[in-house]
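pasting for ref
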Amino acid sequence: MKKILEAIGMVLLVAGACGVLRELTGWFRFMGFTRFVTDHVGFLQGREIFANVVIGVVGFAVLMIADQYRKA
């Protein structure tokens, strides 16, 4: 369970960081799934940077939760 949470958290953290960089600079076009989330959810349109920051923070939180699990 710990490894699964670590993997999910790392993917979310990297996706959030790449999404913010993509919105600010235009780089990291290969991270298309964050663009899919921010463009196709109605209330997130115009708030792409905020949405990507939230994705990164959720990834960090999942990593912290994974750190609390004992290795079985």
